[in-house]
Amino acid sequence: MTLLSFFSTSTEMFPWLLLLLLLPPLLIIFKTYLLPSYKNLPPGPPKLPILGNIHQLGNLPHRTLRDLSLKHGPVITVYLGSVRTVVVHSPETAEEVLKAHDSDCCTRPNLSITKSFFYDGLGLGFTQWGGYYRDVRKLCVLELFSVKRANSFRAIREEELSRLADSLSGSAASGSPVDLTAKLAKYVASFTCRMAFGLSFVGSGMDNERFLEIFTEANRVIGKFAAEDIFPVFGWVVDRVSGLEGSRRKSFRALDTFYQKAIEDHREKKKKTGGDEREDLIDVLLKLQSQETKLGSTRITDKHIRAILMDLFVAGIDTSAITMDWTMAEIARHPRVMKKVQTEIRERVGDKGKVTYEDLEGLEYMKMVIKETWRLHAPSPILIPREAMSRFKIKGYDIYPGTRIHVNTWAIGRSPDVWKDPDEFIPERFLDSNVETKGTSYELLPFGSGRRGCPAMYMGLSTVEFTLANLLYHFDWKVTEEVSVDEAPGLTSHRKHPLHLVPVNVINRVS
Description:
GO molecular function: heme binding; iron ion binding; monooxygenase activity; oxidoreductase activity, acting on paired donors, with incorporation or reduction of molecular oxygen
CATH architecture: Orthogonal Bundle
Order of helices and strands: HHHEEHHHHHEHHHHHEEHHHHEEEEHHEE
CATH class: Mainly Alpha
Cofactor: heme
Keywords: Heme, Iron, Membrane, Metal-binding, Monooxygenase, Oxidoreductase, Transmembrane, Transmembrane helix
C-alpha cells in the first residue's frame, strides 16, 4: 500500500513471479508509446525494470530510505514498481511539503486499501481532497474530537485506567512480570470502544480477546503490501492469487458488521430511553444524521458513520498504545530518567492518591520524556502518502502531478544535523526548547501537519499523558530482562518484542 507496507510480503515471491510473466511486453509498449518525460526530478538510486526500487526497501523502509538520503540528499526519488515516489528527510523539506506546498499536495493517492477497507474514502485518513474531505474534517474537529468532547470522556478514561491498575496491583502482589505491551493495547482499545459505542467489550457481545484479535488482524492486512498500488492495471491479479484481497475482505466484514450492530443498538436504546444517557460518538453521529447534516452533497448515512468509526479505531488505538509502550520501554532502559520523572510526578501530586488532569499541566519533565519518545520512535515513521495535484518545486527539484510524496519523520528524528547525539534518549534536550508537537515544528511531527494533520491530537495526547502519569505515580517498575528496542515491520512503529516489567505498588490508589 505504501513504502511501509512492502516489508510484510517481501518474501512472498510467487506473486512477483506472476508479475514478471505478465508485464514485460506491456511494459515495453507503455515505455515506448505512453510514458511521459520528466525532467529535473530529485535524485535517487538506479531502478530495476518493472520492480523499480522495491528490492532496496527491506523490512524497515524508513531506515533504508534514510540511508539513501545520506547519499542522494534530503529529497529523493524512488519507484515503487511504476509509481514515482518522492521522500523528504529534513525539517526544511518537510516544511516545504506540509506548509509551503500544502495546497499543492494535500490529496491522497487512490490506494487499493481505500476501496477495500476504508469505504472508498468516506472516512478521513485516506479521503481525497475536496469538498467532502473539508466537511468530514470539520465534523471531526468540531463534533467528535474537540477539547470539550475529549474532556467529556475523562470519567471513562479514569474507569478504564482503574481496571488496568487493579490488574497491575494483582501482579505486584505476587511479584509477577506483566506483558505491559498487551495490557496497554487492551486498555486503549477498551477506552476507545466505550468512547465510540458507550460500552465496554463485555457489553458489546465481543470479549476483549476476540475484539483485539479482529483488530490486530485488520491492522496486519492494512499494512500489507498490495501489488495493485504499484501496478494499478495488473496488480489486482497478484493480490487475488496471494490471498491479500480475501484477507482484507474478511477483516473488513467483521469490523463492518460490528459497527452496524452498534449503530442499530443505539437506535433501539434511544427508542426505549429517549437517549438521556451519557452521549458517545455514535450518539453524536446519529444526531447529526437525524438533522440531515450533509458531507459534501450527501446526507450522512450509516455507511458514513461506519467509515468514521473505522478511521477512529485504526488510528486511535494503535498510535496511543504504541507511544505509551515505547515510553515505558525507554524509561525502563534509563533508570535515571525513571527516577527523575517519578520524582516530579510524586512531588506534584503528593499524597492525594491519584493523578488528576489538573496535575498534568505541571509535569514538564514527563512532557519532555514523551517528546523524546516521539523523536526516537515516531508512531508513523513515514507519514501516510500525499499526492501532488499540481507541478511545484521542492529544494529546486520539480514535483509533477500524480507523484506520491512521503515525509520520513523517523529520519528527521534521528538526524545529527537537527539533534545532538540523535540516537541517545535524552529528554533534557527539550528544556527551554520551542519545539512543540502540534504540527508547526517540523523537527517533530507525531500528529502530522497541515491540512492532513491529525484532528484527534488533543484526545490522543490526553490519553498518553494521563495514563503514563498514573502508572509512574502508583508503581515502581523492575526490569527482569534486557529491554529490546528492536522495531517490528509495519505502517506504525511497533516494538518487535513485548515489554515485560514487574510492577511494584508504591502509592495506594484513591477512587
